[in-house]
Amino acid sequence: MEKWRRSERVVIITKYLLEKPNTLFSLNFFAELFQSAKSSISEDISIIRDVFREFTLGKVETLAGAGGGVIYSPLVGPREKDEFLQEIAEKLSDPSRILPGGYLYMTDIIFDARLAQKVGEIFAQHFIELEPEFVVTIETKGIPLALMTAKALNLPLVIIRDGSRVTEGSAVSLNYVTGSSRNIRTMSLARRALPTESRVVIIDDFMKAGGTAKGMVELLAEFKAEVLGIGVLVDTELPEQKLVPNYYSLLKLSKVDEIERKIMLHPHC
């Protein structure tokens, strides 16, 4: 007689999958955990897979063979994605967010755990097939989005410092020119933070000309890292030609008018 009821096993298996996305769990793991037959575990997983598919809660995939098992990947459906990005666009289009100099206040959106998690899932869904090994960002505002992306991909997060920190030991530093203000700044990355020849994706909150992103790519080249892609929450319509050729942006900022107090911002098509 099995110790656990099916309803209990389904709940616990679901919790494991959600807590560790993109992690392969063997059927033996759950069979031993519940002291149940693998056939029963397979039926439990089939129930979870069907429910997740029906309600677009994510992708639950079973892999056959000795090294097989079950793996969960976050999935944001097209309609859910469109509605979510429209929600953020409307929040960011509030004229009260206009700051002196034509800047846009975004901090509360970026540091909202619910919104950051969904953004991370969208980025993860876009980049997962590239099989990255690390998620990289630069402090400070890019951290929540990158952290949630790393969580969804089940990967380590590497943070490039805006400047240097003696507490992190030996580091590689790079002077770069910001694409918008043309200021010279310094970014650094601890040598032990990233193994050489790693496959990485870069996540950041905002891109205007792309100077910071270009600097990160150049710094990562010092580690012989392969940059598979760049994801940003918001990019600007101008300048049209960015300093990095390929990137994935969720929202496009067309105009911030300080005089008329208008913001033109919309999801990417």
From TrEMBL:
<dbReference type="InterPro" id="IPR015265">
    <property type="entry name" value="PuR_N"/>
</dbReference>
<dbReference type="GO" id="GO:0045982">
    <property type="term" value="P:negative regulation of purine nucleobase metabolic process"/>
</dbReference>
<dbReference type="InterPro" id="IPR036390">
    <property type="entry name" value="WH_DNA-bd_sf"/>
</dbReference>
<dbReference type="InterPro" id="IPR010078">
    <property type="entry name" value="PurR_Bsub"/>
</dbReference>
<dbReference type="InterPro" id="IPR029057">
    <property type="entry name" value="PRTase-like"/>
</dbReference>
<keyword id="KW-0805">Transcription regulation</keyword>
<keyword id="KW-0238">DNA-binding</keyword>
<feature type="domain" description="Phosphoribosyltransferase">
    <location>
        <begin position="113"/>
        <end position="251"/>
    </location>
</feature>
<dbReference type="Pfam" id="PF00156">
    <property type="entry name" value="Pribosyltran"/>
</dbReference>
<feature type="domain" description="Bacterial purine repressor N-terminal">
    <location>
        <begin position="5"/>
        <end position="74"/>
    </location>
</feature>
<comment type="similarity">
    <text>Belongs to the purine/pyrimidine phosphoribosyltransferase family. PurR subfamily.</text>
</comment>
<comment type="subunit">
    <text>Homodimer.</text>
</comment>
<dbReference type="InterPro" id="IPR050118">
    <property type="entry name" value="Pur/Pyrimidine_PRTase"/>
</dbReference>
<keyword id="KW-0804">Transcription</keyword>
<dbReference type="InterPro" id="IPR036388">
    <property type="entry name" value="WH-like_DNA-bd_sf"/>
</dbReference>
<dbReference type="GO" id="GO:0003677">
    <property type="term" value="F:DNA binding"/>
</dbReference>
<dbReference type="Pfam" id="PF09182">
    <property type="entry name" value="PuR_N"/>
</dbReference>
<protein>
    <submittedName>
        <fullName>Pur operon repressor</fullName>
    </submittedName>
</protein>
<dbReference type="InterPro" id="IPR000836">
    <property type="entry name" value="PRTase_dom"/>
</dbReference>
<dbReference type="GO" id="GO:0045892">
    <property type="term" value="P:negative regulation of DNA-templated transcription"/>
</dbReference>
